[in-house]
Specification:
elongated; 7-stranded antiparallel β-sheet; 6-stranded parallel β-sheet; alpha/beta
Length: 309
């Protein structure tokens, strides 16, 4: 898989099928579209190309400053590559792109990517003030020599709204990591560097790996979670406290997984952590023994949940 950061960085010689979108999180709705794209492109000896954007248009247009992204640009490209995508273009979204007319953008896709087919969701639109909706792009395709193929957007069931990145963000902010897993088709995860903390966990018999992750990636609501921690080729059960550590009068948000049956110094190493089950809300305890008693229960509950799948 080739991953470039601007359309200007690539010129394909082989014809391609293209889809366009932010694809933050690469959730099940995205996956449905990508599967169709890859299968059709490869069966017709064409490259499967995904054009995505960073920063997220919402961040630029709405001035969002809090944690928002479900995946880093590199994580997103990796997930797309694992689905068989040949080329990922993470194009910079700025005022120039925002103000570009739809026809001009399409001309760029044709010249850079040899686009012969554009595959998009049924509610897709691009270009200045979203002028390039599905009807417009279909008509433009007749003039420019590409085919437009819209696809209906996926729902979990008939009673649900379509799966969206906004829906994933919403359930994560509620701490509903089980629903997030259903929407994503995999547990929500973050990757970060293990840094040295205040070592209070080690002092009470529950050492934790204090994680420093991308400051723009969304975290679930505060609480205690069970999940898996991946370190290189190894995987360990983990019970994670995400919060302010009120028992110790903490002043900043911390992400601290306790890896079960593990006792090694891993400062400076990369750790990937999944959120599979929310065990409870974060709470302040009257003393250390009350905290220790609850942590023992959390570990037992987490171990049981992860053991049964």
């Amino acid at each position: 898989m080739i991953h470039v950061r601007q359309l200007s960085e690539i010129t394909l010689e082989q014809p391609s099928m293209v889809t366009i979108g932010v694809f933050d999180g690469v959730h099940r709705g995205h996956q449905e579209l990508i599967r169709h794209l890859v299968a059709e492109a490869h069966s017709n000896n064409r490259k499967a190309v995904v054009l995505t954007f960073h920063p997220h248009p919402d961040v630029v247009l709405q001035g969002i400053t809090e944690r928002y992204y479900l995946t880093t640009p590199d994580q997103r490209a990796t997930l797309l590559g694992e689905m068989g995508v040949d080329v990922v273009v993470t194009h910079a979204f700025d005022e120039t792109v925002r103000d570009m007319r739809a026809e001009e953008f399409v001309d760029t896709l044709i010249s850079s990517l040899q686009m012969t087919c554009l595959r998009v969701g049924s509610d897709f639109a691009l270009g200045y003030e979203r002028e390039g909706d599905v009807d417009y792009l279909a008509q433009l395709g007749q003039e420019k020599g590409y085919e437009l193929r819209p696809i209906e957007l996926l729902k979990l069931n008939a009673d649900e709204d379509r799966i969206s990145s906004s829906m994933v963000r919403s359930v994560l902010r509620e701490g509903n990591v089980t629903k997030a897993s259903d929407l994503l088709g995999r547990p929500y995860s973050v990757t970060g560097t293990v840094i040295q903390g205040d070592q209070r966990g080690r002092q009470i018999g529950f050492p934790t790996a204090n994680m420093q992750i991308w400051e723009q990636q969304l975290l679930p609501t505060t609480g205690v979670y069970a999940g898996w921690a991946t370190l290189g080729d190894e995987r360990f059960m983990a019970v994670t406290n995400l919060g302010m550590r009120p028992t110790f009068d903490g002043q900043s948000l911390s992400l601290e997984p306790h890896l079960l049956d593990f006792d090694r110094n891993i400062y400076g190493q990369q750790l990937t952590l999944t959120f599979e089950h929310r065990l409870r809300a974060e709470q302040k305890f009257d003393g250390l023994q009350a905290l220790i008693d609850q942590l023992q229960k959390d570990v037992a509950t987490g171990r049981n949940l992860l053991s049964i799948g």
